[in-house]
């Protein structure tokens, strides 16, 4: 018998197909490590539940006798496959103390998003056929499409077409969550994103959006904004936005800084303070569609700290000590924590 089994996924939310994979993993090994992806993301229509909530949900759907055999490995999104694979291997090794020789990986090749199953050659792969008829996206869309009034009844009605694909405990959890303010915020964002995508649905091919972001450092602080509108209302982000038709990247960066922060620094000073421009282009970095951003990193430490004031899409501006950023990871919009992590080496 294998010494341990591994199951990898986001499980947003847990459905019966996930539980079928987990039950099979439990037949193959005495211990199962469940790797929970997107572990420290802010709540969003794609990632509505924290990793702790997903772990509790999975355990609640198991027979009590099996719960002690399952442990969880939360792994953040790195938007870099090699780095993510190393993090998964490290997390499983630290949890199970396994060198990989007797570990079996259980999974299902759903589509291109399942290609990661081939990235662990030291683990024997057990590839199972599709379990059930629904995926998590279908469940989330049904759930978030519930009528706003009478939240509990509306959520049950909305989930009725997929209820037989959910463990009863998970169905109850979804209905309970639908009565919280967090659910109302998720619904607002989900509807905004659906309308956003509908606006270009008739294009001959999906568009690629180009954006800019500014990473402003002053001493041990970085300049952030709190987003004032969906998507990501209330979340922290770097100041930035879309490149307009007549903008260069540099002009777009200056314009967005002025609009969102009123940064009181002359252009010539910013030119001298520019340290690097780095492209972030992972296909999954934005739920709005394929969005490629160009991050302009500035160091203004040689000057007095500039005055800033929120405007345009920013609800407020704030200077945040770099040492505090890791503890704030779950409050960031899209991949903006990852961007900061790349520049500032926050987590490793």
TrEMBL record:
Keywords: Nucleotidyltransferase, Transferase. InterPro entries: Cyt_trans-like, NUDIX_hydrolase-like_dom_sf, NUDIX_hydrolase_dom, Rossmann-like_a/b/a_fold. Residues 207-343 form the Nudix hydrolase domain. The keyword Nuclease does not apply. It comes from the Bacteria. Pfam families: CTP_transf_like, NUDIX. One of its GO terms (molecular function) is nucleotidyltransferase activity. The keyword Secreted does not apply. PANTHER family: BIFUNCTIONAL NMN ADENYLYLTRANSFERASE_NUDIX HYDROLASE, PHOSPHOPANTETHEINE ADENYLYLTRANSFERASE. NCBIfam families: cyt_tran_rel. This is Cytidyltransferase. It comes from Comamonas serinivorans. The lineage of its organism: Bacteria, Pseudomonadati, Pseudomonadota, Betaproteobacteria, Burkholderiales.
């Amino acid at each position: 018998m294998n010494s341990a089994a591994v199951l990898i996924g986001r499980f947003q939310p847990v459905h019966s197909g996930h539980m079928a994979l987990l039950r099979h993993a439990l037949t193959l090994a005495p211990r199962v490590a469940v790797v929970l992806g997107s572990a420290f993301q802010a709540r969003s229509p794609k990632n509505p539940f924290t990793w702790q909530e997903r772990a509790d949900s999975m355990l609640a759907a198991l027979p009590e006798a099996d719960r002690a055999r399952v442990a969880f490995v939360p792994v953040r999104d790195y938007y870099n496959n090699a780095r993510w694979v190393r993090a998964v291997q490290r997390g499983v090794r630290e949890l199970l103390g396994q060198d990989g020789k007797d570990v079996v990986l259980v999974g299902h090749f759903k589509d291109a998003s399942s290609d990661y199953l081939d990235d662990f050659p030291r683990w024997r792969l057990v590839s199972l056929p599709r379990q059930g008829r629904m995926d998590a996206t279908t469940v989330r869309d049904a759930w978030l499409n519930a009528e706003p009034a009478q939240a509990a009844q509306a959520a049950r009605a909305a989930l009725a077409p997929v209820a037989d694909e959910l463990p009863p405990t998970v169905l109850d959890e979804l209905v309970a969550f639908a009565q919280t303010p967090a659910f109302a915020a998720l619904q607002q964002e989900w509807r905004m994103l659906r309308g956003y995508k509908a606006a270009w649905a008739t294009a001959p091919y999906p568009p690629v959006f180009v954006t800019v972001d500014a990473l402003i450092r002053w001493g041990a602080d970085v300049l952030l904004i709190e987003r004032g509108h969906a998507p990501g209302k209330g979340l922290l982000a770097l100041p930035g936005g879309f490149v307009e038709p007549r903008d260069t990247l540099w002009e777009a960066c200056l314009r967005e800084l002025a609009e969102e922060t009123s940064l009181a620094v002359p252009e010539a000073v910013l030119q001298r303070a520019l340290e690097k421009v780095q492209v972030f282009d992972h296909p999954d970095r934005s739920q709005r569609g394929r969005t490629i951003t160009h991050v302009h990193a500035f160091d203004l430490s040689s000057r007095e700290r500039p005055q800033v004031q929120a405007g345009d899409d920013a609800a407020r501006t704030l200077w945040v000590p770099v040492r505090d950023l890791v503890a704030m990871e779950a409050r960031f919009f899209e991949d903006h924590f990852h961007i900061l992590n790349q520049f500032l080496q926050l987590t490793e």
